[in-house]
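Q: what sequence does this backbone want?
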């Protein structure tokens, strides 16, 4: 005896075959040419079977459509999940801005009720000038034209072949060394220069040093390619060679004032000056610098004054509390300064000069590593370091780690140069802070990824800077103000 169950798999396989053939015939019917051919070759029974299968398929499709209309579930992720494709968080960003404004408004009102209005225009002016009839920092900036003209004269003699490359290199080394040493000596020896005025003058000379270094390198590269008869730069070099002395003087001053540190023979230029864009940037510059001054006098100064006694007594609990209180206004100033300098001011200058390359920063706020932050928050300096320092070291056989360490060392030197010299004291807090970025960058890249790495970058910015500020202010008070009874009483 053969059981009916033995025919079960065969029956099911035949049923599957029938359904599959019906589906294939249905697909064929949708094509007009195939349907016509099948009608001619098939008999009445076959056509009737196909019609029934087609009708069944239509009924099944209608049932599925009705089911889809009443179904309320499908395969999907939550919006806040990382697997979701949702990216519009504008409402949450607006909420954060509203909460930030409300919280800072409360602190602002509390500060005014406790301390009164501390912003004094005379104090603002005194940050830059001790004597309104004496402007030593501005005079120091004007003197910097001598070094620009020396570089221009040296380059003209090198282009004409009047001096050799070795002699030109010695002149450049002497000129660049004096650019760094001369303002430092003047600031240290001239008491009439205030710390803020000295920092401004030293900042101008530092920028001039980097620009003239790039000017030297690019012109040397062009001379080497001219001697090698390189065709790629023949047009640019011919334009440079046809410049008169006045044209060369105008072009180097254009480069000095342009918002870039890297010299080129032909800069990209915009078509015209947009007055609306220019006025908006000017308004932002005025508005944000007034905000910075208000936060410094109204918010930071009282916190710093109240921090001197805990620092002297080494009261770690109160020191930590003052540090956290100082972190908020310090970070606000840093963010406002970033927007004021890298967006408003540099775009204002670029628009005036019709300078075309406006990439002054990238998305550093999305940094997941310390290295990515330093590569993207200050693009002019990053381009200069990459072009004139990092890549030449690699070409000379240095490894990547050594080259990166050298770049951080140079950056640490200039940070300390711009802080310690105007304050007339050398404590190396800025230098050590920059060098500490190397092990921090290794740790974040090795152990933290994604949002955790981004949080570590933000934490280093928010906490690291107030520590250096407190250290410098404390040392400045101990060095210059501790013996002054009026200042000691105010603190």
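A:
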């Amino acid at each position: 005896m053969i059981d009916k169950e033995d025919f079960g798999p065969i029956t099911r396989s035949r049923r599957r075959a029938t359904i599959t053939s019906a589906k294939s015939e249905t697909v064929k019917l949708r094509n007009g040419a195939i349907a016509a051919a099948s009608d001619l070759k098939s008999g009445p029974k076959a056509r009737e079977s196909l019609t029934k299968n087609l009708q069944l398929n239509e009924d099944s499709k209608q049932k599925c459509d009705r089911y889809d209309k009443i179904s309320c579930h499908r395969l999907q992720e939550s919006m806040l999940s990382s697997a979701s494709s949702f990216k519009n968080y504008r409402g949450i960003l607006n909420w954060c801005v509203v909460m930030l404004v409300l919280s800072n408004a409360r602190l602002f009102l509390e500060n005014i009720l406790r301390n009164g209005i501390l912003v004094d225009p005379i104090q603002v002016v005194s940050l830059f000038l001790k004597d309104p009839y004496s402007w030593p920092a501005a005079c120091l900036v004007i003197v910097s034209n001598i070094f620009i003209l020396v570089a221009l004269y040296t380059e003209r003699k090198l282009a004409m072949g009047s001096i050799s490359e070795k002699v030109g290199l010695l002149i450049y080394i002497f000129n660049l060394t004096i650019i760094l040493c001369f303002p430092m000596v003047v600031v240290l020896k001239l008491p009439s220069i205030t710390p803020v005025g000295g920092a401004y003058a030293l900042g101008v000379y530092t920028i001039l040093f980097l620009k003239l270094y790039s000017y030297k390198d690019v012109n040397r590269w062009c001379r080497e390619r001219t001697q090698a008869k390189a065709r790629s730069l023949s047009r640019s070099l011919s334009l440079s060679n046809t410049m008169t002395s006045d044209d060369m003087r105008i072009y180097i001053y254009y480069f000095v004032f342009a918002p870039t540190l890297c010299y080129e023979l032909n800069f990209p230029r915009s078509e015209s000056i947009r007055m609306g864009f220019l006025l908006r940037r000017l308004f932002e510059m005025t508005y944000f610098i007034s905000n910075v001054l208000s936060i410094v006098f109204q918010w930071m100064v009282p916190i710093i004054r109240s921090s001197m006694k805990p620092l002297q007594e080494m009261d770690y609990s109160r020191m930590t509390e003052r540090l956290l209180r100082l972190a908020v206004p310090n970070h606000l100033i840093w963010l406002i300064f970033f927007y004021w300098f890298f967006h408003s001011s540099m775009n204002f200058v670029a628009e005036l000069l019709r300078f075309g390359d406006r990439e002054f920063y990238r998305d550093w706020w999305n940094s997941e590593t310390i290295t990515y932050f330093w590569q993207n928050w200050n693009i002019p300096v990053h381009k200069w370091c990459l072009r004139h320092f990092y890549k030449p070291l690699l070409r000379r056989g240095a490894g990547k780690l050594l080259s990166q360490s050298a770049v951080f060392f140079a950056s640490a030197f200039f940070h300390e140069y711009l802080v310690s010299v105007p304050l007339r004291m050398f404590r190396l807090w800025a230098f050590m802070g920059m060098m500490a970025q190397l092990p921090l960058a290794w740790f974040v890249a090795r152990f933290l990824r994604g949002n955790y790495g981004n949080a570590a970058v933000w934490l280093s910015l928010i906490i690291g800077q107030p520590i250096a500020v407190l250290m410098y202010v404390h040392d400045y008070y101990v060095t210059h103000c501790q013996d002054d009874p009026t200042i000691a009483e105010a603190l």
